[in-house]
Design a protein that fits this description.
Blueprint: E1 6-12, H1 18-27, E2 35-41, H2 48-54, E3 60-65, H3 72-82, E4 87-90, E5 96-97, H4 101-109, E6 114-116, E7 119-120, H5 127-130, E8 155-158, H6 159-165, H7 177-187, E9 192-194, E10 200-201, H8 208-228, H9 239-251, H10 265-294
Parallel strand pairs: 1-2, 1-4, 2-3, 6-9, 7-10
Antiparallel strand pairs: 4-8, 5-10, 6-8
Amino acid sequence: MPVGFVSVVIPCFNGLPDLDVQLSALAAQDFDGDFEVIVSDNGSTDGLRQHIEQLESSLDIRWIDSSDVRGTPHARNAGIVAARGDFLAFTDQDDAVYPNWLTALTRAAEKYDAVGGPIEVQTLNSPEVATWRAVPAPDDRFETTYLPYAHGNNFGMWRRVVDQVGMFDENFLGGGEDTDISWRIQEAGLTLGHVPDAMVAYRLRTTARAAFQQGIGYGAAACDVLRKHRPYGAELPSVRAIVLFGYGLVIRNPWLPKALSPLPTGMWALSAGTLRGTVSRRLRYLLDERRLSRR
């Protein structure tokens, strides 16, 4: 089915000035159809609304208020409600889509119910920071121990998919809402395609502390998503897997000599944060189960 009018949704919270880089990238799209850009403001205090209203751009751009409930999932959902398009595309405030991004996504969407694409970390990050995140090759999907998923900053779906599986789960405030909706789509028997040509430049955290904090959210969110989908076959990481992961961080910590191939500082911090978030969430589950068993 050919794609008609497209709505691009960008959840935003204090995203200036990075948002302007993304908007410039969207204005440079080679897409030959019509599309709108919805900036879903999740409570910004940096003058975002005034900035959008005064912005000189060739884009059909709208600011909407999504500050009633905090979190990226709600901001995306508010964008879905406001969108006029039959096809919904999602990207983030601090990234930059490639010029052919929308063309590639919409062409692939003629064959799939939902689509996602790859990310790269070289364009928007310093050479050092770019070593802090390993990402799949463009041809490879984002795999998990259960089902593949589409990255939230490079994702598109038909509105009818929302009608069938629902919107983003607003309980996932630390991440994971993209994995959750990707899995729900596949569990419903719908198709999730991967589009190697639909590339997005991804901006990383620039300090080890920020990477560590991000990792905590990732680890906790991953456990929450896996737990939600356990009835369909997803499994939480085993104690053995967690211990081995922790051991790997010890023997590859960035303070070791380079001859021992230590991880880059930011990658290690992200992984350490992920371990902490995972362990913390697993302990919470254990305590919850014990409380329930005592009732």
